[in-house]
Amino acid sequence: MTIVSTAPKTERKKSRKNKAIVNENAPLLPKTQESDAGFDDFNGASFSGAVFNLSTTIIGAGIMALPATLRELGMLPGLAFIVFMALLTEKSIEFLIRFTRAGKAVSYGGLMGDSFGKYGKALVQLCVIINNIGVLIVYMIIIGDVLSGTSASGEHHSGILEGWFGAHWWTGRTFIVLFTTLAIFLPLASFKRIDSLRFTSALSVALAVVFLVIAVGISVVKVISGGIAMPKLFPAIPDVTSFFNLFTVVPVFVTAYICHYNVHSIDNELEDSSQMQGVVRTALGLCSSVYLLISFFGYLLFGEGTLDDVLANFDTDLGIPFSTVLNDAVRLSYAAHLMLVFPVVFYPLRLNIDGLLFPSSRPLVLDNFRFATVTVGLIGVIFLGANFIPSIWDAFQFTGATAAVCLGFIFPAAITLRDRYNIATKTDKILSVLMIVLAVFSNIVAIYSDAYALIKQNKGSRASN
């Protein structure tokens, strides 16, 4: 006999919310009914709000580096790999959700702790810290490139403000990034619940679509006018070194889809937790469509001249009417998008570093001094990193080849292979092994290729001197 609950819907919502709050594995959330007094008016996040927050987590700086991966791989393999990574990401998140339900965990760290103990939990927290700091540094670098300017391959690309007003101290990278940090990042990072960012997340997705529509329109006009050459469909591999260099794009693909660290935060606040898998599929479908379109049209538009950060390409004459206006619209829309993505990625970073440093302290939301100190300290570290790391490709290679691949594939696969609750199928375990092998092999080769290229570049520089 099936028993149907007769409890009012609002009571079921409240019961679910309180259950998440009292779990000791959620360090940022209140743990007692008394401490939850300030949150009683929150009945759960909506499906659309969850989709926007997860989509915003996914569509960050990765979209800007994806056209450059097609430059390395060729059009067809590059587009195919984007789809493959989306499917692999969906499966890895499905593993997380399934074992989260079985173990009643409410955080990624709690889930790893359930399978591998306190060291597993600490390892996840450390990887989230490394990955998210790297990603947020990338955001600041891109915003600085767009508004102030950047130099690549010996050529200077003017930023929007530099182009409008000329080179001044207040159009320089340091001042622009500092002003953005104080005026935008700090206020948005002060929210204590991720659902509070649902409206800025919706706006950030809309801005990414605006960027995409303009880029597609420019490409279509140039194709019709005959101003675009046939793109490279497959990679050119004249030697073994060129073959291994293809693997340097893997960390970029991995980083582009990493959102696993926010899955539990979004799930905990969702009005109906059974909708979480639908939220994941909807968000991945939306983001994959955007990735495919911007990668295709970005590479089609700039060809072999596509830069590591494609936004930097939008500072030259595109050969169509209103070129300057369209360039500025593209860059401004995406810079604004990243400003709104920042707090969504910052939220789990603060949660995990607090859980790692203060595991036995009272919830962060109840300690305003600790909340402010952790927030300001983290943003300060990110600001310094953005001013000392020269390229988004360098940052992507580091985070994508280390922490991101662990969070996205190795940890979910390890949890599945551990199978503490005997719920993994044989197919799940085979896929998990393949996931780990692919992740480890690809990233070892990527790290080797990066190191080899760096050593070769240094030797060339010394020889020229």
- Output the CATH class name: Mainly Alpha
* Number of DSSP E strands: 2
Kindly report the CATH topology.
Answer: Amino acid/polyamine transporter I
End-to-end Cα distance, whole Å, is 83 Å
Note the overall shape: globular
Q: Which architecture would the CATH scheme give at its second level?
A: Up-down Bundle
Q: List the total number of helices.
A: 16
In short:
It is found in: Membrane. By secondary structure, the chain is mostly helical. It is built from 16 helices and two strands.
Can you walk through the features of this model?
The protein is mainly alpha-helical and 465 residues long. The chain has a single domain (51-459), classed as Amino acid/polyamine transporter I (Up-down Bundle). It is 71% helix and 2% strand. The chain has 16 helices and two strands. It has helices spanning 9-22, 47-58, 62-73, 75-103, 108-147, 160-165, 173-188, 198-225, 240-245, 250-257, 260-269, 276-302, 323-357, 368-388, 392-418, 426-464, and strands spanning 149-152, 155-158. Strands 1-2 form a two-stranded antiparallel sheet. Strand 1 (149-152) and strand 2 form a beta hairpin. Helix 3 (62-73) crosses helix 4 (75-103), helix 3 (62-73) crosses helix 12 (276-302) and helix 8 runs antiparallel to helix 13 (323-357). The longest helix has 40 residues, at 108-147. The radius of gyration is 23 Å and the shape is globular. The termini are far apart.
